[in-house]
């Protein structure tokens, strides 16, 4: 996967749902709610391949649009004028043209658009009804082409196309037989690898030497074991990959793609999965392997790359330093700093002159000295399993007998990370402690920790959350009568289930686009998830063979046990968690006369992205929770 695509997917899929709220009588300086949740002034900086311009997203009529600015200049030009929906992600296709993705009302059916760097010749390249566009390869060395995936022929699967971004002409490179879930190109932009699901729960890598050959299976494994190729070796014969074949933690390896065998282990960490690798295309060198302990970390393969980061650290200090983008010649870099107390600052580094220049601070209206520290913690679950997480304490008060918000993450096969989270800082600014835990199943901790979560929605996964609450109480940090829980997506499900299984532990709950009924959830998944259904049955459960468990762990079917007041928020166009999930729990609780507030936004999907909707959500949440937690 190219660096441009990595940057794009980060924008498209990163969580921008800053779940938040809550107000109490805390006496420190109260920062306006909008300062935490308004759109960044400028963000998502990239640089043109020739290094003459940088681009960024910035608000235009409260929507994030694309702007460009000549390096060394002081005037920015707006390229897009979207007013209904933020640009979801963008990248430079060549020195003259930028491509971007946008959906309609949160339906996640992203269409690909192109616009000249002058702002002219705006054109939609894949505006097909109910069709989702994927970016497979930006083809950085082929200026007028990209490779995309479309579920146009069949809504359940994506076929790969070579797209001419000037003419709009598309050529199908292969017809998806129905089980291919992903595609991969080599450094020449040739489609050479496919990733399939076979027999419902096995994964398969298919390979071909040239685009004239047929794809041939080279490795088939259970989905619990995987080889994830990142990119080809520089001779286009093998691949650099992460693999957990025969091991618990994913390692960085060289993989013989033609014969389906590992050749060499490059790096493995005894405690954490290696998540990805990076490389220099210009110098044909492997740069680093990445893994996450309590913070993001790198294992360096290349001394020159290591020295670059050390050089930047000398000027930038103890902030986390990331490379957001760089020129084709790898002589100019967009650098971003972050920490637990700031969204960070963008810099331009010119390697030729060794000049580091500040471009823009993302949220200058937030003073990081007023933000709270996010500290790593761990505790033992009731069965002895170690659970890692993060605890944020409000500034200026002793960590004793505090009101607390428990915040389980979504996914559930994802994880919380150390870093700046506006809603966590908002809660801390209002005097609340916040506990985030990486319950079993959270990613990055190895195969075993992931597998022990299978079919444990509402069971041991829920126990890990409960045990975290009890740990806070035992430590004397939490006021046992002032604990709220809220989360989004799976975190919303965990919130509802918490109110079912521990009805007196929580004073209130907030469910944000959460699952409430496992039976109906499985019936309303997006069509492109359907090839993964057997795998979901093994990971979540089967509505038929696990029906007794589903009845017990579906909050909407156990709403009679809920005692705490509830606030539910939902996007009407959510393709992942259908609005019926929220309708069900609200109806069931109101039937019993329990207080429940319900917010539905008609122009949103899986979470609220439009700025005004975020403001509404947090204002309502703040008011709701301040009523129940003092």
Name of the CATH architecture of the domain at 372-628: 3-Layer(aba) Sandwich
Strand order of the largest sheet: 28-29-31-30-32-33-34-35
**Most strands sheet:** 8 strands, mixed
Q: Roughly what percent helix?
A: 10-25%
- Please report the total strand number as a whole number: 35
Helical element count? 12
Distance between the termini: 49 Å
Instruction: Give the C-level CATH assignment of the domain at 372-628.
Output: Alpha Beta
Report the β-strand fraction as a percent range: 25-35%
CATH superfamily of the domain at 372-628: Alpha/Beta hydrolase fold, catalytic domain
Structural class by secondary-structure content? alpha+beta
Mean pLDDT: 93
Shape: globular
Unreliable stretches covering 5 or more consecutive residues: 1-27
Commentary on this structure:
The chain has 12 helices and 35 strands. The chain has 630 residues and is of the alpha+beta class. Among the domains are: 1-19 and 33-138, Beta Barrel (Lipocalin); 372-628, Rossmann fold. The strands form 8 sheets. The chain has an 8-stranded mixed β-sheet, sandwiched between helices. The chain has a 4-stranded antiparallel β-sheet with strand order 1-2-3-4, with no helix packed on it. A hairpin with a 7-residue loop joins strand 9 and strand 10. The radius of gyration is 24 Å and the shape is globular. The termini are far apart. Mean pLDDT is 93; it is low at 1-27.
